[in-house]
Each structure stands twice: as structure tokens, then as C-alpha cells.
Amino acid sequence: MTATAFSEASTSRFARIKEGDLDLQLHYNDLGEGAETVVMLHGSGPGASGWANFNRNIEPLVNAGFRVILMDCPGWSKSDTIVSEGSRSNLNAQALKGLLDVLKLTRVHIIGNSMGAHSTVAFALEYPERIGKLILMGGGTGGPSAFVPQPTEGIKLIGALYRDPTIENLKKMMNVFVFDASGLTDELFQTRLDNILSRRDHLENFVKSSTLNPKQFPDFSHRLHEINADTLLVWGREDRFVPMDTGLRLLAGLPRAQLHVFNRCGHWAQWEHADKFNRMVLDFLTH
Ligand SMILES: O=C(O)CCC(=O)/C=C/C=C(\O)C(=O)O
């Protein structure tokens, strides 16, 4: 499959999942045909989706012979909406279990970005037999930062955009996502704003969820030693959403983890340093 052979629309799929108390329709993108599958889980910003977060990272994996599944978590993009009163990390893990069962995938590698990384760790703890290797970027556990006041600047901007979804608030948030904002185009802003405004129900339910339970992403630090999977941690040195000492906490707790820190990089390492990130991921998955 070549770069021009796939698009969001041509790879868009829906699945009905019933997993425990969850009964909902999930949207996902399905690309490639390899024997091994890589699942990508997006972050929690308004208008995020698998495609929005990972469109620069799909092609090298597909060309290397992996099947790639981008799951849109409940409450994002074209998946059903939901109010999360408990741990959203665990809710997303449960949704992923349901999707993998529908797709008959027994074991997958997972790349998680921010909330997606928190959810990857929740999945690894709940369903250890279903995981291959893990790649966690800008997340993996909630909990305190020893150095940066919380909520961080970036998380406050996410909250402001959820409550008041204007182009001005979107630009404020996205300028903090990245180290170098010169790559953010008007087209990117407009696409993201269209995604945001197309699902007001998701926005309202995220605000409701955060009011019901401000700690949507619990601290897994005390359980990290249970995860035996090879894990690549990737952080931006200038991450203003989830500070880099969270990466150090993960490195200390996960027995088989290694950490790579990009300099001149914010919260979107997979986008800001896509070529190097893609090479590192392929090397990690194939060796
Ligand atoms: O609150 C947290 O710990 C997670 C924050 C988070 O998931 C932010 C992600 C932002 C994006 O990657 C996005 O919106 O595209």
C-alpha cells in the first residue's frame, strides 16, 4: 500500500462493541495487511482523533508490513459520545478490548499519545496477555509532577477550549502543543476546528465528565512494575502539557522501559519530529 493509496475516508470503519457495561459504536481506521498489528491511541484534546494525531506516522508502518488500527476513543471524533465518571484511562482500555475482540486480534503493539498513553498502560495492566510492545508519548500515567505546577499550562488551555471552542482558543492551545509553531498551518487549524464543532455533544460530555471527576487519568505509578512488555517512552523536552518528569517516573517504574527525549519538541513528538520518531518506532518494533 503506498502513501497515495489510503485516506481517512477510504480506511474509515465502525464497530459495535459490547464489553462489560460498555455498549457503543466505535470509529476506527484500518490500514495495511500485516500479520502484526499496531494500534494507535490519540490524546484528549478537543477535536483529536487517531487520524489527526497520527497521520504522519501511518505510512512507514504500513509500508514495513504492519496492519495499523487507529481507534477513536469513546467521546471523540466519529465514535459514540459518553460521560466518564471514573477512570477514563480504564474506560478507553475496555473499549479497546471490545474492538480487538470484534476484529479477532489476540495480541497487538500499541502506540499511545498522552491520554492514549495513559490508556495503553491501563490496557497493559488489565489485559497483559493481549499486548506486544508499547510506545508511550507524553503520557502513561496521571499523578503529580515534582517540578511543574498542575494543572499545567497546556491542560488549562485544553479546558478553556472545551468550554469555549473558538479559533482563538484553538490557536492558543495548539501553539503550546509544539515547540515550533511555524509548522501549524491555517488548513490544520481549520480542519481541527471543524472536527471540534462537528461534535458539540463530545465537548459537553467532556466538561461534564471533568466536573464529575477531575481525576480522569489516575496515577498508575504503584503498579508499573507489573508490566513486562518492552516499552519505548518518547518525550518532548519542552512538553508543556505532561511534563518530562512523568517520563522519568515511568522509566523508573516500568522494568523494560527505555526513554528518548527530543529537544526542540513539545507535546506532539510524533508530529513535530515525525521522520525520526517513525525510524525509532520501526527499529523498536522490528528488533
Ligand atoms: O490530561 C492529560 O494527562 C492528558 C492530556 C492529553 O491527552 C492531551 C492531548 C492532546 C492531544 O494530543 C490532542 O488533542 O491532539
Automatic annotation (TrEMBL):
One of its GO terms (cellular component) is cytoplasm. It catalyses: (2Z,4E)-2-hydroxy-6-oxonona-2,4-dienedioate + H2O = (2Z)-2-hydroxypenta-2,4-dienoate + succinate + H(+); (2Z,4E,7E)-2-hydroxy-6-oxonona-2,4,7-trienedioate + H2O = (2Z)-2-hydroxypenta-2,4-dienoate + fumarate + H(+). Residues 37-274 form the AB hydrolase-1 domain. The record marks 192 as: Catalytic role in ketonization of the dienol substrate (substrate destabilization). GO terms for molecular function: 2-hydroxy-6-oxonona-2,4-dienedioate hydrolase activity; protein homodimerization activity. Keywords: Aromatic hydrocarbons catabolism, Hydrolase. The active site is at 267 (proton acceptor). The keyword Membrane does not apply. GO terms for biological process: 3-phenylpropionate catabolic process. The record marks 114 as: Transition state stabilizer. Its EC number is 3.7.1.14. SUPFAM superfamilies: alpha/beta-Hydrolases. Pfam families: Abhydrolase_1 (PF00561). Pathway: Aromatic compound metabolism; 3-phenylpropanoate degradation. It is an enzyme of class 3 (hydrolase). It comes from the Bacteria. Belongs to the AB hydrolase superfamily. MhpC family. Homodimer. PANTHER family: ALPHA_BETA-HYDROLASES SUPERFAMILY PROTEIN (PTHR43689:SF8), HYDROLASE (PTHR43689). Catalyzes the cleavage of the C5-C6 bond of 2-hydroxy-6-oxononadienedioate and 2-hydroxy-6-oxononatrienedioate, a dienol ring fission product of the bacterial meta-cleavage pathway for degradation of phenylpropionic acid. HAMAP family: MhpC. This is 2-hydroxy-6-oxononadienedioate/2-hydroxy-6-oxononatrienedioate hydrolase. It comes from Pseudomonas extremaustralis. The gene is mhpC.
